[in-house]
Amino acid sequence: EEIHTGNYFYLPQQLNGEPRSYTRFNLTENMEGDNSQVEMKLSSDMDEEVGGNGVGDHLNHNSERSPYVARKPGRTPKNICFMAATTLLIFIIGYLIGYLVHRKKDLAPSCAASKLDFNDDVPEAFHETRAAPLMDWDKVEKLLAQQLSVSNFDSTFREFASNSHQAGSPGDDALANKVLKRFKEYGIQTWTDEHFIKIQQAPASGFNKVVFKGREERPQGFLSYSATGSRTGAVLYAHYGQESDFRMLQGKSINVNGRVILVRAGKISFAEKVYNAAKLNASAVLIYPDPDDYPIGENTQIYGHVHLGSGDPYTPGFPSFNHTQFPPVQSSGLPSILAQTITANMATNIMRQLGGETLPPEWGGVTKLGNETDLVTVEVNNVLTERKINNIFGVIKGYVDSDRYVILGAQRDSWGPGFARSTVGTSVLVELARSISEMVKHEGFRLRRSIVFASWSAGEYGSVGATEWLEGYLSSLSMKAFSYINLDGVAFVLYVNLSSRLEELQMDDAAYPFLAFSGIPSVSFRFTSNSVSQPDYKYFGTLLDTEDKLNSATSSQTPQFAMAAAQFAGHIALRLVHDHLLRLDLQKYNSIIRSQVAEINRRVKTLLPKALSVQWLISASGSYSRASRALAKDSENSDLEDIEMCRLINDRIMAVERNLLSPYVSPKDSPFRHILMGSGPHTLNALSTHLEALRLSNPEADADLFRNQFALATWTIQGCANSLAGDIWALDNEI
């Protein structure tokens, strides 16, 4: 990088990417009439040996300071030798200048070079063109397949299997050190990220209890972040606790206020079940694994959390770093009511004694819903504690856009053995780090962009480790992390489903905060069952999540499943760092935006045909559609050898998810700001829900508030389209 100073170029001499010494040349025109720039690399040691300020001072010395100008030299042997040496030196320097100028023109790249720092071991070609030679993709796939093996996964499973590694425990720390050691053995750069978080544990002395008609139960399982205390209320069965289930109860004129809600596990997260009940003023929620959904044993305890969000709920929107003075604040997603898990046997004892109406046919139609006399007392004595957790990182740097990276991450902690939950994912992470580092070191593979490997802690409490890292480095990650690939629970069923199925990310998925909080394109994947008679693996959140259980579910093919998962994740990551342009299809959002806009338009025409026009929103949707098509066309017509052009296009692609985060809501109050995939009143789904509330004359509905939310959501889409268009003169200003 040239530093322009007056009439001279000072060319930094670089060692490991840092300026160490400078060479100064006068700007004189060469024979071809252009101002040539010449770089001669001199170390600081050489400068010290000649006793001056470098070659520049010798070529541009002041004649008054030279003893050979003060008087006419005689033709002594000494003077003759000196003149000959001087002449030879000038000739050599002139020859080198001419050679370097000519060589520079011959080797000049066809695009602007990226301003990157390179290590000493980077081949010379990278210094000249700043472009990694593109290895054929078929060869990349073959190299990865050669590195991954079933035997390697067998040994890695043995190393990382643990019966006790809850977040922040000695077992968790031991696994963290193993991951760190592995990364260092592979020769990749490592670092750690430390946080002090608050988590809720089962009472160390004492217990939680449920008392129904004189029978006391003391479940060992618990739900972290529940409210604490004791509540008594009448039992009300609410199926899975979904919003539709509560609407059915309300349709039967059944009062939910003050009731203790009994629901089955499944369909939605524990946190969503509790949130839905709390909205209707229930006093507590009991959650059990129904044998029809979870054939795991009638006395199996289940564990989880009920924070409707991710990260440390006592530092919402900002990281839990040590010694930081936090205000007395907590997440709006913390429940205000009690929540407790019970076993299937405990639930059966309660349900067989319930009165009231019979269950709806679609709910089973056998058990009663419960009436006002079926009183139960729930007591939760969970203890809030502080734990230190560590996230572990390794990075393999790219050779072109090293400051752009894809992240591969896996949860390390678990309630118990957590073999499917954490051991398999951690093993896949470590094996991918080993395999790709071997491809780079020994097979000649060069990454255009970097790959970051992340081992998270406190995943069982709501992706706490990952979210705290995102909160701590959100500004640094912006426009640099272009994808997140989640490796949690990737292999846990009987047979691979050969037909792929796309599903929306759920809030309890570790990839969700990357997308909805940080605006980073994210993906989770898993193998699913081909047959409803062969259910998916059901031991997550229990102490039965062991290697034996997973082997039983996979017919002892767990290493093969893990290897297939590693190949799948590896192909995604390697393709993203291999190709010139990111393979992220922005036009996929066209159909999502159009369908949601169409639904809003339909409801507005029914409810507010004269008071509100949807044309503004429709126009913004059209702007996004045109901008995404234009970018796709730019990508097709781009010169892949033009590094700067590729970087500009990739930056436009990366900006889309980030610009779909609503800038009009606070990350502290509404952390999941993504208007399509997030949660809160700023989302397009919330606009449709608000319109439905207006139709039903819900007292919480507000037409003026809806108009405000409508306008902000519209401009978020238009702003995203503007950013996608690129330069300011390319913006669509039809609105």
Backbone CA Rg: 32 Å
CATH class of the largest domain: Alpha Beta
The major pleated sheet works out as: 7 strands, mixed
Distance between the termini: 43 Å
Q: How much beta, percentage-wise? A: 15-25%
For CATH, the homologous superfamily of the largest domain is named as: Zn peptidases
Number of helices: 22
Structural domain count: 3
Instruction: Please state the average pLDDT score.
Output: 82
How many DSSP E strands?
18
Which fold name fills CATH's third level, the topology of the largest domain?
Answer: Aminopeptidase
Structural class: alpha/beta
The CATH architecture of the largest domain would be 3-Layer(aba) Sandwich
Question: Could you explain how this protein is built, in words?
Answer:
The chain is an alpha/beta fold. The chain has 3 domains: 137-199 and 386-493 and 505-578, 3-Layer(aba) Sandwich (Aminopeptidase); 209-381, 3-Layer(bba) Sandwich (Glucose Oxidase, domain 1); 587-730, Transcription Elongation Factor S-II, Chain A (Up-down Bundle). The protein is built from 22 helices and 18 strands. It has helices at residues 44-50, 55-59, 67-70, 77-107, 124-129, 137-147, 150-160, 170-185, 243-251, 270-279, 344-351, 419-442, 464-472, 474-477, 512-516, 547-553, 558-578, 588-607, 615-637, 643-659, 684-695, 703-725; strands at 3-5, 8-15, 18-26, 189-201, 209-212, 215-217, 223-224, 229-237, 260-264, 284-288, 304-305, 338-341, 375-380, 383-396, 401-411, 449-456, 481-486, 522-524. The strands form 4 sheets. A 7-stranded mixed beta sheet has the order 6-5-13-8-9-10-12, with helices on both faces. It has a 6-stranded mixed beta sheet with strand order 4-14-16-15-17-18, with helices on both faces. Strands 1-2-3 form a 3-stranded antiparallel beta sheet. Strand 2 (8-15) and strand 3 form a beta hairpin. Helix 6 (137-147) runs antiparallel to helix 17. Mean pLDDT is 82; it is low at 1-73, 101-131 and 531-535. Residues 615-724 form the Transferrin receptor-like dimerisation domain. InterPro entries: PA_dom_sf, PA_domain, Peptidase_M28, Peptidase_M28B, TFR-like_dimer_dom, TFR-like_dimer_dom_sf, TfR1/2_PA. Residues 391-492 form the Peptidase M28 domain.
